[in-house]
Each structure stands twice: as C-alpha cells, then as structure tokens.
Amino acid sequence: MKAEKRLLRVIGILSIGAAAMFVPSEATACILDSEGTFLDASCYIGGTANGAIVDTSLGALDDIVDDIVEADVGPATAAPPAPVQTAPFGVFASGQFAHTEHDGFRISNSLDTFDGPHFDVDEFSAAISVDFNAAKHFGFDNEHGLNIGLFGGYASARVGVDAFGFSSGGDATNRSGMFGGYGLYRHGTSYALVAVSAFLGNTDVENVDSGSGNYDTQGYAITGSVGRIFNLTDRVRFDLRGGLLGVTFTGDGYEDSFGTDYGKSHLSFGAVKFEPGIYADFQLGNGMVISPYARADFQQRFGYSNTASVEGEESEFEDADFSVALYSGFNLKMTGSTTLSSEIRGKWSADSTTVAGKLGLKIAF
Length: 365
Hints:
Blueprint: E1 4-5, E2 31-33, E3 37-39, H1 41-72, E4 89-102, E5 106-108, E6 113-115, E7 119-133, H2 134-138, E8 144-161, E9 170-187, E10 190-207, E11 212-231, E12 236-251, E13 254-255, E14 261-262, E15 265-274, E16 277-280, E17 282-283, E18 289-310, E19 313-318, E20 322-333, E21 338-349, E22 352-364
Antiparallel strand pairs: 1-19, 2-3, 4-7, 4-22, 5-19, 7-8, 8-9, 9-10, 10-11, 11-12, 12-15, 12-16, 13-14, 15-18, 16-18, 17-18, 18-19, 18-20, 20-21, 21-22
C-alpha cells in the first residue's frame, strides 16, 4: 500500500512552531528547515487540490465512456417505445456531485517525512457530448458499429484542509474546462473504445494563517477499454470490460502574497482497470423501458508520481494505489429518442472514501 504524494506549504512565519510539528523522517516533500523541520501548509493545500481536480476530471471522463457504452453497445433487449429513432446523431448530457473524505497524504523530502492532515473534497462536473453513429449513417451497422464523438464540460474541486500543528489549515479551489473526443468500434457484442481528454484550469490557494496565491493547471488523460456483452437471459446481460488509463498533470509555479516561491507541480500515473457490470431490461406498462444496473470498478495504479517544490526543495506525495468503486443506477428509455439516467457511486481506498451521484440525459436527432 502506497500513500499518495502531494504538496504542503506553511509560510515562514510558522517557523516558530516548527519543533512542535516535527515527525520522524524519510524521503521527499513540502517540508522546510528552520529551527527544526515543519510542513508548509500552503504547499500541502495546493497539492491536495492537484490530486482532487485530477480525480474529478477522470470521474467525468468515466461517466462519458459509460454513457457511450451503455447507449451504443448494450441497448435494451425489451421492445423500445415506438417510433424507433434511426437518426445517426445523439447528444449526451450529465452532471455529477461527489464528496471525498481523505485521511491525508504522506509527504517527504530530503529533510523529513510527515503524515499530512485530513482533508475533504467537494466535487462537481458537467459534460455534454455529441455522438455520431457512422455505421448507421453509412449503412454497415448490421454487424459492425462505429461511433465517434466530441465532448466538452466543466469540473471543479474545492478542498478543505484541517488544522494541524500551528497551522489553522485552509482551502483551495480548482476550476477547469474539459474537452476531448472518443471512438467506439463494435463487432457483434464485442467492442473497443478509446477516449482522450484535456482539462485546463486555475487553482486558488487560501492559507488561513498567511498569504494566498493562484496558479494555472493543465492535465491530459487517455483511456482505452475492450469489452464483451453476454446475454444471460432474454432480459439480463453481463458486460465484461477492462482497460488502461494514463494521466499527466502540471501546475505552474507561482509566488504567493508573502513572496514565497512555489515551483511547478507534476502528477502522473498509469492504471489497469477491470469493470464488470450486470444490466436488466423491463418494459413498463406505459411503454417505457427501464434498465437497472450494477457495476464495479477495480483500479490498480502504477508509476505514480506526484511532486512539487518550495524555494527549490522538491517534494513527494504518496497515496494508496488500489481502489474499488461500486455503481448502481438505471437508464429509463422514455421515447425512441430520449433516455434518462441516474446513478449513485461509492469508492474506497486505504486512504479515502468517496460518495457520488449522477444524473444524465441522452437525446437522438
């Protein structure tokens, strides 16, 4: 079990309380040396925000991928409401709220090692994507499927860090715009999907005891999945899916209102994902089709790196690499062209717990 790597910053005025904040030593972080070692609060606050906006943006990307697969690979096997929509274009829109409780990162540098304080994260994301069913448009969708699409959206993550040592804590908020594209190929009930995303934004850091600052951020992600749908009965199907994920993120350097120099921050990792799910279809008396489902997401990160620096001293943040998420929700096909979806999700790792809710809508035209 690893512990994530993130940044911590406490301004020069906290050096008075340095000795009280001393913790046993090890590797690399936002740890300063002034009459003893101490954790830089502002650095830590900014570091938690970096990890939070990456998680929020990846959550939005996962939602987009799930919507595509559910709509284009696993259509309801119950008879849909008439008339059947044959248009090649579709629009997906979804919004998600999430809340995370995190025990804190372990931060380390050449001076010392600290177990950072608890923090919580409030997340929001909204995205809209335009889907083009090329196979349907060009008339080869009997056996093969080909969908391509573009999406854009917004993500925000607000982090609140608890008081620790002589620091009263603080908060940071990142607001980012997202955009990207995807391609889905289907042959029978087997499929492969690739999606890429960029999220560009800005983080505001507020340290209760000292100065404030802000810095620009940019991140990029690519995910690839392969899967197969198995029809267990005439109404129940099983989606066996797995894939890979890659992420890189950079925060620009900045100087805060007290003149402290914070260098660039970097976060990157890869991950292996296994995402099985089961779906059922039921036609209602009013002609609508409801498809409840349950899914799991087992994710193992590799090559995790999360670094930052204060006054030229580089830092490392550690976090748990393995996580499990459980999803439950439904898709309600109201007409041949309109589908409403709702979902709740829980995610757990050795260091954090997340609960989330999602609402989505698809319209074909």
